[in-house]
Amino acid sequence: MVKRERLWGVFAYCLLVAALYLLVCSKSSPLYPINDWTDANAFLSSGKGMLAGRVMYRDIYEHKGPLLYALHALCVLAGGGFGGVFVLEVLCAALFLLAAYRLLRLYGAARTALFALPVIAALVYASFSFQQGDSAEELCLPLLAWPLYWLLAWRRQRAPGRMDARTLLLGGVMFSCVFWIKFTMVGLFGVWIAGLFAWHAARGAWRAAWGCAGWFAAGALLATLPWVAYFGLYGAVGDWLKTYLYDNLFLYSGGAGGLAEHAKAVARAVWDWVSLNVGYTLPLLAGLCVFALAGGRRSGVVQDGVSCFEKWMLWLMAAATGLGVFIGGKAYVYYGLILAAFMPFAALWLCLLAERLPRQPRPLGAAALAGLTIVSAALCVFTTPNRGDLLAPRAQTMQYRFAAIINRTPNATLLNYGFMDAGFYTAAGIVPSVKYFHQTNVPLPEMRSEQARYVAEGITDYVVSRAALPADMAARYSLVAMTDAPESFWYRQVFLYRRKDVAP
After folding, report:
1. Structural domain that includes position 424
2. Inter-axis angle of helices 82-106 and 38-51, to 10 degrees?
3. Weakest-pLDDT range from 34-43, 151-160, 466-475
4. Does 504 reside within a domain?
């Protein structure tokens, strides 16, 4: 076991690696003018709305889980905007890397586990599926990596009894946290608790089996009750469940046609993820395969060998996680990032090979670790897909150009019409004042009709759109600015309108 004192030192190193790599790779970093990813801005705008007293789903329409928006509300309190988000990203990345370290040491990488961490960080956070940073997948990586470690560490005991209640309870809490962030990512937990139950049931230890299920369920309930209380207090339970469950399950995924067409869509989604992220997907798949081929106690491949239970559970958890992500057939490439929770197994075999090298003096090892950390972080500058906006001035972004105009009006209100929140609320420091403050990917007729009504009735002081508004719809507004959108966006220009009765 790793001594507690040393583990704190390892966590400090994980924080350093996380901060260094995310400074370069995440657009939430202070080295970028703004994180202009639509998802990240929608999360942040919703969090600001919650702090202003608006109730998610009833007063603000967004379709991911409530915990995601609550975390962003905390980020606003901590750092005003993406500064707080960056801190959250660093903390989540550090916890993920610490879990990776524990997993590597669990399978015998005693001397080399630290050296794998900057490599894992570089491959994951500079990947295409990382996008601009602050995805639900990124934030959930530690919530999957730690239960994965707990399960395998429990099984590697020589005579495992029932997993302790605290770990089971915490596993249930983490399941609920992931579920109330984005429920498509909970596949690992179904295999996790089913595997524990089956292990004891196969041995006739039914009390232990039901004890595992009971403690896990108690943790899941414990982390769900605050949301029941919150939405119950505001009479919004129906809005919560309808938006988060019904809209996502029956509206967001859309119609995928017949079974053959759906299978093609799933295969295409998986291929896009693998082919666009070969830097970590191929090592990940190779690592899982090598783990499956590892022998028993006498094989010498892994310290103390690998049991069939460990192999089956690892593959089933990875498969269940992937199934939950891709089964809908509609999958953006960042969906697969959650599978990076299994990345330690991509690095394990190189670590075990390196373990066979002669032990080096500690100062030389420390220098090598520092060099690897710095060099791989420097390489991320050239490999991250976000490098084009690194150190760009804020004044050049479309968001801050419009913000300079909007902020001339005291307490201005804004509508992001006809497209997803692209950071105009963030740049102008505006809290959404209408329920449908932007247009999401959910094909909800009410959302489109309500946004059209907001414009027709002049509900907000300003309207930003990705296309010129029809004259009859925008009769209450005047066009005050237009600018080109960045090449990374799927539209060419943005237009800013001001209500005619608002002073310039």
Report:
1. 394-499
2. 110
3. 151-160
4. no
